[in-house]
Amino acid sequence: MADPAASAIALSLAMGAGAIAAKSVIGEAAKDAYRKVRDIISSRYSSVSIEKLEEAPSSQARLALVEEDLEITGAHKDPELARLAKELFQVIQSNENSVLIADLEKIEAANLILSDVVSTGGILAAKDAKFTGDILIQGARAGNPLASTDQKKT
Q1: Would you call 5 helix, strand, or coil by DSSP?
Q2: How far apart are CA 93 and CA 87, in angstroms?
Q3: Does the pTM exceed 0.85?
Q4: For residues 130 and 52, what is the distance between their CA atoms, to the nearest angstrom?
Q5: For the chain: N or C, fewer Cβ within 10 A?
Q6: From CA 37, how far away is CA 83, in angstroms rounded?
Q7: If we measure between CA atoms, which residue out of 90, 70, 91 comes closest to residue 81?
Q8: d(CA 148, CA 103)
Q9: pLDDT tens digit sequence for 93-143
């Protein structure tokens, strides 16, 4: 299992890369915060596989690879990187466009499957929804991944 600090940094990177790749309407503050995290990793820890994560920010395998790289290089113990990753997460989370992955209202369906999703808010909200089959949510991460690292000393 990855170190919580490495997981938080990798998830912040994935969220930033995902927001940029999806051409979300994210503000300049979020883009700047992402660039700062990316730049510090590129300059200090060049063996961390950021490019692969940017190609597929929702990939759990690539997220795990970046987490591992952060641990191997010791980047997860860098206080400046941790601070910048936390700022990136907070900027993305405060963005007006940080919403649920699925917000369903008045829908009828047989099944619902959500897989390998990352959200700064929640994963699913359903109102007046009816499903006759299964609801499967797997590989989901939601909420503030940095909360647990605030209390952990590196």
Answers
A1: helix
A2: 10
A3: no
A4: 38
A5: N
A6: 9
A7: 70
A8: 27
A9: 776 444 455 656 667 777 777 666 666 556 566 777 777 777 777 776 665
Triad 23, 56, 60: Cα angle to 5°: 125
Contacts of 35 (CB under 8 A, 6+ apart): none
Q: Quote the CA–CA distance of 127 and 102 in Å, as a whole number.
A: 11
CA pair distance 53, 68, nearest whole angstrom: 12
Q: Which residue's entry shows tokens 């619902």?
A: 112
| Token pair 């200090």: residue | 44
Angle at 57 between CA 55 and CA 62, to 5 degrees: 85
Interatomic CA distance for residues 33 and 35, integer angstroms = 5
Q: At what angle do helices 4-21 and 28-44 cross, to 10 degrees?
A: 130
The answer to whether 128 touches 149, Cβ cutoff 8 Å, is no
Pairing of strands 130-131, 108-109: parallel
